[in-house]
Amino acid sequence: MENYFNRIVELFVKSDVSPSLQADFYRWLADEKFSRKKEEALYNLWEKMTENRDTESDTSVDTWRSLAKVNKRIRESQGNAHRKLLRFWQISAACLIIAFISTLYFTHTTKREAADLIEQYVPIAGMGHLTLPDGTEVQMNSTATLLYPEQFSGKNRSVYLIGEANFKVARNEKMPFIVKSNDFQVTALGTEFNLRAYPGDSTLSATLLSGSVEVKFNNLTSAQILKPNEQLTYNIFTKTESIHHPDISEVTAWQRGELIFKSTSLGEIITVLERRYPYSFVYALSSLKEDKYTFRFKENTSLTEVMDIIVRVSGSIKYRIEDDKCYITSI
């Protein structure tokens, strides 16, 4: 029976199905019968895609080709070196979309169609602002995607985030505001917090600026209540969490267009630069040293200025920019 559910989910995400069949699948997925098995099948698919994030297996390629249609707005014309990460990004996004639509169905007791979803996507090098139907203000970082309904109904206000965003939640004690991501969930009534959940990153983090939030993680089996100026960081690979008291100005630096790296490896720095600048970064991750660096760049600092400083400080790499590509090699 377990393999049966896994097979159905995998067939759906790999197949080019009609809108009517998609609707039937979402109804089946959201039906409470065998709900645990279906949730496990979705989770297994996520885990499989996570395991394949650094490989070029046939499964990951075929799945990406299908799922890219689901989240086509995040497709970018990139070089082969960048495409691996993008495939995992799109697969993760599509899994979240499926889970989110399923959640919407669970919140309704009737058989009517699920509420229409709105997708807000911020492209590379961009930043987005929007106000949700309940009055909650959201500021989104580059390459972030937010999924939310046209109108909130039911017992809570649920949205899905892929990437990083700051939320100033409109207070409504009768309808908690819930932000969901893979293996991570933040619940608030009226507060301000920053959530960072980029697919491909080893850690997820939630930082409370004001008010109070509950953060669930580890397959939503563990929870922590945060106080203002506290940050919970969760490692999705080791399944461990920690509480910090960060410099809030550094947590929110991205909202001002600044780039801050603290004890960060070159590989991690490049991952952030890929989201900030409209360039394809071509490099061999295995050739980069694991040394940690601390940098702070002001708003509107060009990629050339950033790379010049990184090259000079690290002393272990060189770079060149040609058209829309940045080539990085070790020395």
Features:
globular, 31% strand, 18 strands, Phage tail protein beta-alpha-beta fold, Jelly Rolls, 331 residues, three-stranded mixed beta sheet, 13-stranded mixed beta sheet
Please characterize this protein's 3D structure:
By secondary structure, this protein is an alpha+beta fold. It has helices at 2-14, 19-30, 35-51, 58-70, 80-106, 248-251, 266-276, 303-314, and strands spanning 117-121, 128-131, 137-140, 145-149, 157-168, 177-181, 184-188, 192-197, 203-210, 213-217, 222-226, 231-235, 240-244, 259-265, 280-282, 292-297, 317-322, 325-330. β17 and β18 form a beta hairpin. It is globular.
Q: Which helices and strands occur, and which strands form pairs?
A:
Layout: H1 2-14, H2 19-30, H3 35-51, H4 58-70, H5 80-106, E1 117-121, E2 128-131, E3 137-140, E4 145-149, E5 157-168, E6 177-181, E7 184-188, E8 192-197, E9 203-210, E10 213-217, E11 222-226, E12 231-235, E13 240-244, H6 248-251, E14 259-265, H7 266-276, E15 280-282, E16 292-297, H8 303-314, E17 317-322, E18 325-330
Parallel strand pairs: 5-6, 15-18
Antiparallel strand pairs: 1-4, 2-3, 3-5, 4-5, 5-8, 6-7, 7-10, 8-9, 9-12, 10-11, 12-13, 14-16, 17-18
